[in-house]
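Why this split exists: single-chain examples teach little about how molecules sit against one another. For that reason, every record in the complexes split bundles all components of an assembly together and asks for one structure covering all of them. Below is a record exactly as it appears in the raw files.
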Amino acid sequence: MIKVGIIGATGYGGRETIRILLGHPQVRIVLLAADPSFTGQRIDQVYPEFRSRIDLPCLDVDEAKFAKECDVVFLATPDGLAIKFAPALLAGGAKVIDYAADFRFQDVKLYEQHYPIKHTQPDLLKDAVYGLPEFNAHRIAQTSLVANPGCFPTAVVLGAAPLFKNALIEDNFIIANCLTGASGAGRKALLPMILPELAANVQPYKVASHRHQPEMAEVLQAITSSAASVCFIPQLIPVERGIIATITARLAKPISLEDLVDIYNGIYSQAPFVRIGAAGELPELKQVLGSNFCDINLALDNESRTVIVFSCIDNLVKGLAGQAVQNMNIMFDLPQTTGLL
Amino acid sequence: MIKVGIIGATGYGGRETIRILLGHPQVRIVLLAADPSFTGQRIDQVYPEFRSRIDLPCLDVDEAKFAKECDVVFLATPDGLAIKFAPALLAGGAKVIDYAADFRFQDVKLYEQHYPIKHTQPDLLKDAVYGLPEFNAHRIAQTSLVANPGCFPTAVVLGAAPLFKNALIEDNFIIANCLTGASGAGRKALLPMILPELAANVQPYKVASHRHQPEMAEVLQAITSSAASVCFIPQLIPVERGIIATITARLAKPISLEDLVDIYNGIYSQAPFVRIGAAGELPELKQVLGSNFCDINLALDNESRTVIVFSCIDNLVKGLAGQAVQNMNIMFDLPQTTGLL
Amino acid sequence: MIKVGIIGATGYGGRETIRILLGHPQVRIVLLAADPSFTGQRIDQVYPEFRSRIDLPCLDVDEAKFAKECDVVFLATPDGLAIKFAPALLAGGAKVIDYAADFRFQDVKLYEQHYPIKHTQPDLLKDAVYGLPEFNAHRIAQTSLVANPGCFPTAVVLGAAPLFKNALIEDNFIIANCLTGASGAGRKALLPMILPELAANVQPYKVASHRHQPEMAEVLQAITSSAASVCFIPQLIPVERGIIATITARLAKPISLEDLVDIYNGIYSQAPFVRIGAAGELPELKQVLGSNFCDINLALDNESRTVIVFSCIDNLVKGLAGQAVQNMNIMFDLPQTTGLL
Amino acid sequence: MIKVGIIGATGYGGRETIRILLGHPQVRIVLLAADPSFTGQRIDQVYPEFRSRIDLPCLDVDEAKFAKECDVVFLATPDGLAIKFAPALLAGGAKVIDYAADFRFQDVKLYEQHYPIKHTQPDLLKDAVYGLPEFNAHRIAQTSLVANPGCFPTAVVLGAAPLFKNALIEDNFIIANCLTGASGAGRKALLPMILPELAANVQPYKVASHRHQPEMAEVLQAITSSAASVCFIPQLIPVERGIIATITARLAKPISLEDLVDIYNGIYSQAPFVRIGAAGELPELKQVLGSNFCDINLALDNESRTVIVFSCIDNLVKGLAGQAVQNMNIMFDLPQTTGLL
């Protein structure tokens, strides 16, 4: 059994990690830590859905204890904390999967430009692997430090990578218009998130200025060896969870929808969690909720030479905790799907 | 034209008051005040729905200025502030309508028992009138200080008063199971109100301990001259607005549904905002949203001698700003419905 | 492995059964049948969430084939079809779990009074067991024909049974005010269920005339050996799934909340899916969604001698497919929780 | 007073027209007609929100009677019925405002290509005016037959027209990614619209094949004298009402956001229902709900030379009944805003 510790257990990422791992046949959750305001509370008091399932207390973070008692530690923490916790955890022999951005960028300057944080562990970056198993599984298997991708980048990169890889589009340029549920903002008392503000509403935000944009661009370039320009338009819609990315681009040259579907199926033939819809099918967001799938559907507007890619994920699963467990499976040489189907 | 000032303009009560008064043919809004964090902001910056309609700035509270420039001031403020603002406003010649509980209880002790506030203006209580026009219109017309009722008491008192008035039920006892939308908690960043917590959820709260319970009991006794015992069960449901009260009681003696409907129609024959459903009709909450109506529907379970009363209001209109405007109309000798239909 | 067939696979009950059974370690789904309009479609075409998980086609009902190839057949079908399908299935050696009301009433007359169907298989009733494992596990283990309970009766009976069993309440009378999500009406294009009608709405319906009322009363009497009178008030709220029953009654004599909680804990000490909240805790509906738990919380209004019981279930799981799988586990001598945690 | 008749009174367009006209100071609703299934029912029985406000019965359509008793008839009917009803209404002296597509296209062939209907009244097309007051007010004032625009074209044309008029974009090409509430599909019992299907969901549909696309393209060309190519991507989101169009295009040459805002303000300086957000402001859908405003906000992604236009309307108001009343006001020489603020 893999002994797991979760730091940041009381946020939505922590909760979803617990939910998934309770059904994982090779895992035992042994330690939880959370913000000091929760110290001493049992997790089933914070989330009564866990009553009779798990009753561990929320501890203060003690890296040495976690490193000693855990084989792997999930850092379901805000940006900037992994820099602080990871060194001692790794030094103590635990593998680390970070949910935040601390180890996603190979270039420290890019990180510091978009996050208001001084990166104190640049040396760890050479070991860190961007945890997108569809493209980096081999490297994930060999590292002890995985940077779990952002939720929007997961949806957009998986949906757009074949366009870049196969040089299908003009100017290597996509528009990514992404609708997201409110859980993406975390479990925080924020005014725009209260139901009277958000119900019956749609709120575009950080248009063309969201910090997931440089992540998307960097990752697309890294995995497709192509230049990549992304105009990213996030919009908050009144649902709890899920992201549907509508990616549009102009085709460099004509292609049939069937051929396009074939290209996608080819690229993802070994990816158990990417499902490509048949030509003519459209997705609904709901079909991925609660699961680790990324469902991709394709359409063409021949009149305007536009390719339209829909990429749907559950932001808390494939966009967060599920992908982290998928990475853990790879790091421990288990089938990717263990505990995730 | 009636010159109106609104203190607490940026909360949901203030916003709804502005929305209604913008359509009132006899009113001009002349002054707004709000929490100091809004000072200097225009109301149409806080609520962009008001752009091109009203662009008054949010001022700090200045009772003398409001008393001088306004005929009536709406105190859309939290409990405890009317005690502070009302004396100078009244002394300066303005009429006052308070949205909070400060002047609802004739008995200062009852107020201080349920609200953590020292009541410093007990002398004003003899002038204050509980602003439920269906029972107190005559006294509202003659006062300068109206205590606008709580949202739950409005729904429950209007729904249950005929049962007490006509001695129809056993033990003068009702159970009031009330579902409410989230706007009832005000425009505040509260964790249980964020959409990921509340969507797809129902949250009972303050069961048999909510401070609207003593208000219901006192008012029912005052207006029906009957003892009144109320078991009050509030539940938060995932909607923005609206209250549906399900009031149940055991009948003291058999009565037909038709006779019951007749009794209700009789009691509310002069009330333009109370609509009694025909025998056999059931309500839906939606039919009152956005309006000042209180819709009441009746049902009987003959087998168990239970009478079931559904009473629906929009908590922000008949339960708050609409009722306040109805009271204002009465205080200024206008038809009750002016600006409200 | 238990070979399972599902008739009525394309409704919400069928879908949820498939979802649960895909995670059940002892089960293989071998046959699906559905309404003829689906004949030949694969289930993952009807529900794309199942793509890459299960791709069985929807067949026409062929009782002989199902009896031959399946160990157990789930009849996720409307009222009246189990009467038609069960005899041949049972005769062919398959166990049967019916989701509808056909075998819930021991008295054919009660069934025919509340359902517009002629009961053609009264002889099967003596073998049928009402599938509420918390009270009937022993008999469920010995039968081949389980009548899966209605969703509302599951929530109300589990929540109220201790009150009757221990003679705690006046007149053996409860009011059950039950809020339900829209999936309870099944996957049907009904006007009151479309989002523009139901969003932001609450709709009481069949007040004191719903056919789950006699089921509740009969079952409460059967399992508690007490008379039982129920006033049942169902209300539709704008959520997809879940039932929260608020059960109220007047106490026959005073009892402390702690003693009441103890009584409930005692009665359900062997029930793995019933969780009793501690004194002072209130539930939220969300804590049971997606799971087979029935969460019960208790409150007292001492002033009015009222006991308030909240009983929460997911109507599609503990109220339908999960309970059916729990019954199947018992029928096949597996731990009740297999595949359900 | 303008005497108004409404045919199609029981659909969402009819209902919203009634709601608005009940507050219009110059209008009296005199006749209602609806589908024969409603014949004889009073409108306040169909929509209980109207109780005590309007109690007209739903009649069968009788063009002669409507023409005789009404000054103007709103045809809130499905495509194809205006062709049938309009000739006799116009001949009888009534003005006509059609909510469907029958008179929107100057070219009969375009209509017949996108709607499965034989157009039997091509001669009326020369009199019909496309009812977009921001561009056609002068012609609307002089006609008796207004073709009320589609909801998506209203949002997209108002949002995009300045881009074409001022030749700001490459290839005269826009992508219009439009989110819509479910009321856009009308008051029909459709399976994808029931709450269990649509809640928590997003459903793209008719991607690059919706029949509002040719309407957008034709109207943009007509009012801007520019070629216009539109890739239209509609998506259904789980809200009752509202459309937010995200319109993207590549700039032909650089422009500052401030200059862009100035251009929009200039073009809509005389349009009382178009509000342009200041540079840096983003919209929320909610700010237009229930009102006749079209709110437009602008953003630039300088890195990719992309202009992003958000255009928000209430699909039932500016996208339907409100725009129809605005057109009526113009046809009867009233200020455009009468009864709409």
